[in-house]
Amino acid sequence: MNVLLRTLTVVRCSRTTLSTHIRSSSTFGIVFDVDGVLLRGKASLPGARDVLLELQATNIPFAIMTNGGGYTEDKKARQMEQILGNGVSIPTELMCMSHTPMRELAAKHGDELVLAVGKDCAELRNVMANYGFKHVVTVDQLHRHFPTMYPDVKVTDLLVHDGRFDSQPFAAVFVLIDPIYWGRELQIVMDVLCSPNGLLGRRTVEGDGNGDRQHIPLYSACSDFQYVGEFHLPRYGAGAFHAVLENLFTHTTGHTLEKTLFGKPQRTSFEFAETLIDAQHEDVERIYMVGDNPKTDIHGANEAGGRWKSLLTLTGMHNGPSNHDEHPAYKVVEDVAQALAFIKQDFAKLQAEKSTK
């Protein structure tokens, strides 16, 4: 398994579908992060609504790329519209959640039994079903089948075990977002990852590193170690959960956890976002990433290179006022409104330089 899925085939959004929302005459596009750029928790950040309304009015291609997840792209778009207020329209087709590119993996695992990890079990199953996965079991469901797998969380509504886990192996583990009960999820995910070819009940991947290696793949979305919300200090996110899982796996087995990562700063997510922008215009010369997290938004855009330019806001993870040392942005701006003003100026300068050549 590759650490990073670099050859993911990305499904392009239908230009016909998107054109019902946006008919663009612009030659640049903007990709926005959400938390710390447009929103902070359940509140809109200053300038966010006006920026999106201007983009809609002027037909400038834009997309939303967030490391949030655990529910459908449509639900996230509707939530954002409600917070941002009347007049703002965010088509579902313009949303890239941390796990959105995972839908391509349905071609490989869609007919197999997979374990899904996250917060809301019903939402997880809905997301996976929308992507084309037909046999999804959540950690909560597995725990309700086998309450003694994690006795510290009491099970009140048991599910009858029909014997299928004795003969039907898990083919993969999908972490869509960090869970609520970290202890339970870590234990049960480890049980599955260390099982012989995905069959529950015993472990063959454990010891000093000389035993069997990991038999089934782990796909993990969202690399945000921390994020900003309504609380004044950063909170740990799915990246922190993944770090704990990785350390636990190595400590238990002696092996390095093999995984495929999705979400920013992974290239797969930036490639996917490009398709959302390109579906709105035939000739997008430059794509601006507006984000607040140097380690995900800025790092990812810088690594993507080419048409990408990164703008770092001071309304989220990075307080500034100077640029980030390890992952410097193309431009540091106060907020999303200043970002749009700079983008228009920068692109006009690019066009002027081209006209003089």
TrEMBL record:
<dbReference type="GO" id="GO:0016791">
    <property type="term" value="F:phosphatase activity"/>
</dbReference>
<dbReference type="GO" id="GO:0005737">
    <property type="term" value="C:cytoplasm"/>
</dbReference>
<dbReference type="InterPro" id="IPR023214">
    <property type="entry name" value="HAD_sf"/>
</dbReference>
<dbReference type="InterPro" id="IPR006357">
    <property type="entry name" value="HAD-SF_hydro_IIA"/>
</dbReference>
<dbReference type="Pfam" id="PF13344">
    <property type="entry name" value="Hydrolase_6"/>
</dbReference>
<protein>
    <recommendedName>
        <fullName>TIGR01456 family HAD hydrolase</fullName>
    </recommendedName>
</protein>
<dbReference type="InterPro" id="IPR006353">
    <property type="entry name" value="HAD-SF_hydro_IIA_CECR5"/>
</dbReference>
<dbReference type="Pfam" id="PF13242">
    <property type="entry name" value="Hydrolase_like"/>
</dbReference>
<dbReference type="InterPro" id="IPR036412">
    <property type="entry name" value="HAD-like_sf"/>
</dbReference>
